[in-house]
Specification:
Its main location: membrane. This is MraY family glycosyltransferase. One of its GO terms (cellular component) is plasma membrane. Keywords: Cell membrane, Magnesium, Membrane, Metal-binding, Transferase, Transmembrane, Transmembrane helix. The chain is mainly alpha-helical and about 375 residues long. It has a two-stranded antiparallel sheet. About 70% of the residues lie in helices and about 0% in strands. It is built from 13 helices and 2 strands, in the order αββαααααααααααα. The chain has one domain.
């Protein structure tokens, strides 16, 4: 407990005191996210919050852990650094999508090949248990890229990406703590501390955004925690109140907001004949803000729904995984359909534009 607390406080302190300096430098160098017709903020806001998240997390992780505790530590840090620079370049110069994807694939391959962080079993979902080496490599890289992109896409309003990151990290970290896997408790706590500090400055009106620098790093760390959560449950399954039967389904439930949102918008874009990477206003947070909710209320609603889906996954532990997945997916589809109905109804009454915003309220960037 003391090690987890020390990791959390260290990263929180570093990120908290680093952000004001980053904001000042961004203002001097004019490094802003400029509002346009697609984005939800109405003032120039610095986008380099990922710098502080990176500094706090990496310092705390390396200070409170060692390679003896995390044998994959050097590769985890290497993959984070790859995405740090990819995200930084995208925040400053707007990288094309295929270059961002190439960076994500490189980071994922480092983790899968050299660190050995990969999914080796489906736990019987769709009748699949163990995976051969090639399937394991391919599925693990795919999983990491999907989660990384999902976190990048969910970064659309104040506090949402940070809150989703904290929620998922806390869920995984709690199990690692119960399983006495302190090396991953340190990783979880280090990320949580940085995100907690970031949220203080990202609350409406936001003083800074995490940018792609932050969202890509958070995504790759969450993919590491998710895969280790799945694999460690296979190797050291807990008994008693900590025992989890449907491991992959619980993992999906923990990450359901970014995963479902990405699946939803990609499907809509493809059906409309557009590139899946073509930005639009069909994200779940857009549906909520378009019916008049503020960023904090929208974030609370989405995190509450995420919590509900995790509860569903745990409550149905004795049911087949496929059935649980269907129930979760149907709940997500029903909720998103209802929100789309409310937005269309509002537009049908002539209220096409967003609800009026109080003067001076900034909005986070929309992907």
């Amino acid at each position: 407990m003391l090690l987890a607390l020390a990791s959390f406080i260290t990263s929180l302190t570093i990120a908290f005191f680093a952000i004001p300096s980053i904001i000042k430098i961004a203002e001097i160098k004019h490094l802003f996210d400029v509002p346009d017709e697609r984005k939800l903020h109405n003032s120039n806001v610095p986008t380099l919050g990922g710098l502080a998240i990176f500094a706090g997390m990496i310092f705390s992780l390396t200070f409170w852990s060692s390679q003896k505790e995390i044998v994959e530590l050097q590769y985890i840090i290497s993959s984070i650094i790859v995405l740090f620079f990819i995200g930084m370049k995208d925040d400053l110069f707007n990288l094309v999508h295929y270059k961002k994807l190439a960076g994500q694939l490189l980071a994922a391959f480092i983790l899968v090949h050299w660190a050995g962080i990969r999914v080796t079993s489906f736990f019987g979902i769709f009748g699949i248990y163990g995976l051969d080496i090639y399937s394991s490599y391919a599925f693990s890289v795919f999983t990491m890229v999907v989660i990384t992109n999902a976190m990048n896409l969910v970064d659309g309003i104040d506090c949402l990406a940070g809150s989703v990151g904290i929620f998922a990290t806390a869920a995984f970290g709690a199990w690692f703590f119960a399983a006495e896997q302190m090396q991953y408790v340190v990783l979880s706590a280090s990320l949580m501390g940085s995100l907690a500090a970031f949220l203080y400055y990202n609350r409406t009106p936001a003083k800074i955004f995490m940018g792609d620098t932050g969202s890509l790093m958070v995504g790759i760390v969450l993919s590491i925690l998710a895969i280790k959560f799945i694999e460690m449950n296979r190797i050291i399954p807990l008994n008693g109140p900590h025992k989890i039967r449907r491991i992959p389904v619980v993992t999906i439930a923990i990450l359901i907001i970014p995963l479902f949102d990405t699946l939803r918008v990609f499907t809509i874009r493809i059906l409309q004949g557009k590139s899946p990477f073509n930005p639009d206003r069909n994200h779940l947070h857009h549906l909520l803000t378009d019916i008049g909710l503020g960023h904090i209320k929208t974030t609370v609603i989405l995190i509450s729904f995420n919590t509900l889906m995790v509860g569903v996954a745990f409550a149905m532990q004795r049911v087949r995984s496929e059935i649980i997945l269907c129930v979760i997916l149907l709940n997500c589809l029903a909720a998103s359909y209802f929100l789309a109905y409310l937005r269309n109804k509002k537009k049908g009454y002539g209220m096409v534009k967003l609800m009026p915003r109080p003067a001076g309220i900034s909005k986070a960037k929309s992907e």
